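Structural prep section.
Before we set up the soaks we want a predicted structure of the protein with glutamic acid in place, mainly to decide which crystallisation condition to try first. Input record follows.
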Amino acid sequence: MNKQKTFIDNTLIEQEVKLLFDALCTGDNSFISKECILEAINKSGIDKNDGRLKEILHNINGNLNQESFYDLSSQSALLRKCLSGNLVIPDFESFSKNILNIFKKTAKIKEGKVADYIPQLARVNPDYFAVSICTIDGQEYSIGDYDQKFCFQSTCKPIIYCLAQEEVGAKKVHEHVGFEPSGLGFNELSLDRNKKPHNPMINAGAIMCSSLIKRKENIADKFDFVMQKMKELCNPTDISFNNSVYLSERQTADRNFALAYYMRENNAFPASTDILETLDFYFQCCSIETNAKGMAQIGAALANSGISPFTEKRIFNNQTVQNCLSLMHTCGMYDYSGEFAFKIGVPAKSGVSGALLMVIPDLMGICIWSPLLDRIGNSVKGIEFCKDLAKQYNIHNFNSITGEKPKKDPKSQRFDDTSKGVLALIEAAGKGDINEVQKINASGVPLDAVDYDGRTALHLAVAERQVEMVQFLFDNHVNPKTKDRWGHTPISEAKDNSYKEIVEIFSSTTNDA
Ligand code: GLU
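Run finished without errors. Recording the tokens verbatim:
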């Protein structure tokens, strides 16, 4: 079975590469130039210096004929995706243009005030404004002051929470911190009814989580550990530490000291916690710096279940990330968390440096940075940008409920492009044309795609009694139990029509579909 699967996979890659070669060869040319490949990569939103492509691109010398193109592109699924427009945002150019338009509109906003509780924040240029986007495939777009560094402040809280969970497990973390929005200010001197901090996204909760990280190590090693993790989450050169912010934070931290002592008074910390060292560690985490590009990459790793799109390394386990996104969703935006979840509908966290980190699960991380804050402490431009984005794109968690037709849903661009492909795939399956089905599949339409009635290629193959096609789709793991909108499955249709030879295929125990 596996051998057959590998054979089919290889055949599909071969088909895909052949189609790509034909598509990229212009005129009568029987070769593809390196420039043509670089241009396609550039359009796809993947940086040509992306570590995943570097070696492959380096190996292109001059023009590629069909054979050398095959050798090259069969080595990298990412390259094939870039060239065929099959990345998570297929039309990245149009998407970037829309983002630029929202950026320009938002840039006109002048309201807000920079945080002034420490001089290092009060002195930041209020006109700074950056937006960076990074998808789970590593497509990137940045505009404005995206190289300018700012400190994480409260946007480090999701990371601290993830690190604490990875260290001692979510269960243990939540013996010390709750799950509920506090309904109070982020640094309010208050605990929940169990005398624990309300959640990990406010100061008390983040201080508590800080106390759970590398408890046995000295403070210098703890700091190195956090820096190392931050550098794994994004381009390492985008992470640094701002010592003057740290010193100022520490000097003006009466409320955070008060919170820590209040929690200690209520036995909220694990036994023998050194609260001064814990506070120091928390101030250091708030004083780590990045830029909008780096923060968007961190968001992309969270959107990608904890795996960096660039190194493909798992940094946090997926349950850790799900927990973190759940609490960002309900508690991440200070006293605006409820309204943000209601109107925008995705997990986000903001900080007083003006950073807003938004995560659209399975799609992308977005960072909006502008130091002008509203009275609640969120970046004014950040919130407006998100509102506009949500107006233009279907990003809200519960959009499927309203069944609204996609506006400019980034994902729907892909759906729109492939809806024709899905119909062609299903039609070809009905005709029993395996060759055609393979071709369409190689162009990016999944074999188990469904049409508007919820019918798959397998439904059609059964309906038309295309036995070989049924066998092919079944062997390629198309689920015979998928229900269409009338509740019919390929299995039930085969049985209802007494297509014995098909019923037999489905009852075959050698197949694990
Ligand atoms: N370092 C700040 C504090 O603990 C973080 C404030 C914030 O970004 O919410 O008060």
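Observations: Residues 153-154, 186-187, 203, 249, 256, 286, 351-352 surround glutamic acid (CB under 6 Å).
Flagged for discussion at group meeting.
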